[in-house]
Each structure stands twice: as C-alpha cells, then as structure tokens.
Design brief:
mainly alpha, two-stranded antiparallel sheet, 2 strands, 2% strand
Length: 249
C-alpha cells in the first residue's frame, strides 16, 4: 500500500477516494494539507453515525453523545492519534473502534477540555437525524460493538451507492439510475421490468441488461470500498462476508 503521494496528486477523484482510507489517515497524520484535510473530512462524514450509535448504546444521553462524537473526531485530528495509526495492525474499522474505546475511557477530562469542539475543527454531525436514526435501532438485540459494526457496514454500502449514482450522473444517466435502483436495492413494492421499461422508454430486455450491468458495477465498487479499509487486499473476501453478516444481524 502506498501511503505517500506527490503534491500534484489529488486525493479525490469524481467524488471517490483516489487513495485508500489508510492512505488518507497516514497522510493526514504526517502533514496537514488542504487535500488531506478534505479527504479526511469526507471520511468522517461517511462514518460519523456508527460512532454516535456506539456512544449512545454505551448509555450516554443525547447531548453527551453529540459532544463525545465531536470530541472524538477532534481527538483524532488534533491529538496525534493519526500519527500513531499503523495499518499493519489491522482493518480501518478496528482502528477507529479501538481509538474510540480509548477516547471514551478518558472522556470526562476531554469533555472539559473540548466541550463542543473547544475551538478545534468541527466535524459534520446532523444531530437531529442522528437521534431519529438511533430511535430506530433494535433496543435489546445488539451491544454497542455489534451496533457499531452493523452501522459501519451500512455506511459503507451507502458510500458504494453514492459512488454508483455519481458514475451514472457523470455519464448523463441519472434518470436511468433512479429508474433502476429499485432492482438493485430490493425495495418493498418493487415494480416489474416491464413497468420500468415503459417509464424509461426502453425495451424490457434493455432494462434487464441495464440492471445486470448496474449490479456488476455495484459489486465492483463494493469490493473497491472494502479494499480501501484494509492493509492487505487478500482479506477482501473475508471482510465482505463480515460486512454482510453485520448487516443481517
């Protein structure tokens, strides 16, 4: 894995990470640049809710969970945690969860020093939607760690869907994506290929081919996103199984 890049390289390309998540973390830990800050900010935006859900499931109330979520990301960005990150020790989600556990063990002192950010760079947190989403979580079925892993997996799949939608938009096919996504996601009340064909002005056979290609691209992006969280790409199949197991809980 290549952890460094030249100043001429962009960390972002077409809305997707051009380097691995680990590369973003290591680069941000080594030096602050507008590109590394932007990439790390996007990474935080993608995965803040699993952090919030874990903290809430640990028994913290809403205001403290909001403070602690913000404080945790401030801790990552300003306390040298990223400089101590070592991808050889495991997966990115394991690093993030381990860092969170360490942070919470000393949360009282940090809350006093970093109340609502304490002047540190704030990370996006949609407080209203966070609690709405948390109320939908199963109450008794999952401990905090299992809930984190499930929400991590769902956030990853959301990221894949965003990238797929961006691919279609770049090709001028946003309408096609909206018309076919129901077959990708298995939404309730999903229509038939014939109905989709009529709505899109396509043949039923054309819709079937388009759906098949969409699913192929989704699987490709899913694997890419998984690999970005790993130090060893050979672990991709095992991690993909873990992700699906976490979602099915």
């Amino acid at each position: 894995m290549r952890a460094e890049y030249s100043d001429s390289e962009s960390l972002m390309h077409g809305g997707a990470f051009a380097t691995t998540h680990w590369s973003v973390v290591l680069a941000a830990g080594e030096r602050n640049t507008p590109r590394s800050d932007a990439a790390l900010d996007q990474l935080c935006r993608a995965y803040w809710y699993p952090i919030y859900a874990y903290i809430r499931r640990q028994g913290y109330g809403v205001p403290d969970a909001q403070d602690l979520t913000q404080g945790f990301f401030a801790h990552l960005l300003s306390r040298g945690t990223l400089r101590r990150a070592n991808p050889d020790r495991g997966k990115f989600r394991s690093f993030l969860l381990g860092s969170l556990k360490y942070f919470l063990a000393d949360e009282l002192a940090r809350l006093q020093a970093q109340k609502r950010g304490g002047g540190c760079m704030m990370v996006f947190l949609d407080a209203a939607s966070a609690e709405d989403r948390y109320r939908m979580e199963p109450v008794e079925q999952m401990d905090a760690e299992k809930l984190f892993e499930r929400r991590w997996a769902l956030a990853l799949l959301d990221r894949v869907l965003e990238r797929l939608e961006a691919d279609f938009a770049q090709e001028g096919k946003s309408r096609l994506f909206q018309g076919l996504r129901q077959f990708l996601l298995g939404e309730e009340g999903v229509g038939t290929y014939r109905e989709a064909a009529a709505a899109l002005g396509m043949t039923e056979g054309g819709v079937k081919v388009a759906v098949h290609r969409m699913r192929q691209r989704y699987r490709e992006l899913f694997r890419e996103e998984i690999v970005q969280t790993l130090n060893d790409p050979a672990e991709a199949e095992e991690e993909m199984r873990h992700v699906f197991a976490a979602i099915s809980r």
